[in-house]
Design goal:
single chain, 18-stranded antiparallel β-barrel, mainly beta
């Protein structure tokens, strides 16, 4: 995190015009309500162990951004404290991020993005940008870091190239989780068939490292190679779609996993109507790091989000995500049974802006996790809900 943020600052500020000014932005919010099963206990244990707790949280967010003729630089930091009746459940989360965009010319652009999060406990919140594809096994401190570089070059108005690099790290304090590192590099070619339609072809290679986990086993390392073809289309009236499909091959140093091949998908559909109504949804399928519960998985994700603006003051949002993690195993050694862990995250909210910089809201969040038990149980069945009233002040 430190090296990535330092690189962003040094590269972005080198040769910057002296007259450019920093803009500050931020927000502060407080909320209170009730959380069901905040200890993330299995649904098979006593109801007393899964009892509800009154809870409150305070979130602060602050950042600064700067614009140049061909560059944009932004930093932000957001701590959040969650407080329960049982003080042993209290949690302090730190979220940091940075981004830099630069136009070398009209045809060439680079983007660097850095995001990091540390939490003293697990978080179950669809608003978190790092909770995707995570499986809960017990409460644990965790650290997540994602650094991404994307370079786009337009050969001519109809042809373009994209190169990307991504480095993702996830550590857990509990040994029941598998720490994972993902180093990914890829390239893609894009051809514009018309003003609103394009096709693409690309290749990605990932090198996965795994640590901790079961002290009696060595998760080892894996490589994933993916070949992808894509099609995108956008309409005048706000519709848009992206479809990518291909094939992936996973090779693992663990003899219990070996070599596997699988179809790859990544589809997105969106609609926006003059800031009054917007909706998006998608489906993806591919090899992943196993969400912390095991080393490798074939994961599927479906999501949908809707935002409706009723008046200048009232709006509502709805979001859900459903993940399926199938543990990748060698059928010759593991038999016919398979481990499959399913997770569902959903959120509904109603918001009211009663002043220029002030808003209030009601929200409901649900997280559910279940496992089709195979040869080695990996995660408990969990159900938890959150009911909150919030008050937010923001400034730009």
């Amino acid at each position: 995190m430190k090296r990535a943020a330092t690189a962003l600052l040094v590269v972005a500020c080198a040769g910057a015009p002296a007259g450019a000014a920093w803009d500050f932005f931020g927000s502060a919010s407080a909320a209170g309500g009730r959380t069901d099963n905040p200890r993330f206990q299995s649904s098979t244990v006593s109801s007393n162990a899964r009892r509800s707790e009154l809870a409150a949280f305070v979130r602060l967010s602050g950042g600064l951004r700067r614009e140049w003729v061909a560059s944009h630089l932004e930093f932000f930091y957001s701590p959040m404290g969650t407080f329960y009746e049982d003080s042993d459940l209290n949690d302090l989360t730190h979220s940091l991020g940075a981004s830099w965009d630069h136009m070398f010319s009209r045809r060439t652009r680079i983007s660097l993005q850095e995001a990091a999060l540390f939490t003293s406990e697990q978080i179950v919140d669809p608003n978190s940008n790092v909770n995707n594809n995570q499986i809960l096994t017990e409460r644990s401190r965790s650290f997540y870091n994602n650094f991404r570089v994307t370079l786009n070059h337009e050969i001519d108005p109809k042809n373009g190239l994209t190169f990307n690099f991504r480095d993702t790290t996830r550590y857990f304090s509990a040994d029941t989780y598998v720490d994972n590192l993902n180093h990914q590099i890829g390239a893609a070619y894009r051809r514009n068939l018309s003003q609103r339609t394009s096709i693409s072809a690309g290749y990605d290679a990932s090198y996965l490292e795994f640590r901790d986990g079961d002290p009696n086993s060595d998760p080892g390392e894996s490589t994933v190679h993916t070949v992808v073809g894509g099609w995108s289309w956008s309409a005048v009236r706000g519709f848009g779609t992206n479809i990518a499909a291909g094939y992936s091959v996973l090779d693992s140093t663990d003899p219990g996993i070996g070599s596997h091949g699988a179809l790859y998908f990544n589809t997105q559909l969106s609609y926006s109507s003059q800031r009054v109504f917007s909706a998006a949804g998608g489906y993806s399928r591919g090899f992943d790091t196993g969400g912390g519960a095991f080393a490798n998985s074939l994961s599927q994700n479906a999501y949908a989000s809707v935002r409706a603006v009723f008046t200048q003051r009232w709006n509502s949002e709805l979001y859900f995500s459903y993940n399926i993690h199938n543990r990748v195993e060698n059928t010759a050694t593991a038999g016919t049974e398979r481990n499959s862990v399913d997770t569902f995250t959903g959120r509904a909210s109603l918001n009211y802006q009663f002043a220029t910089d002030w808003s209030a809201g009601l929200s409901y969040t649900r997280f559910a996790q279940s496992q089709d038990v195979g040869t080695a149980p990996a995660a408990p069945d969990i159900r938890t809900n959150r009911y909150y009233f919030s008050l937010t002040w923001s400034f730009t």
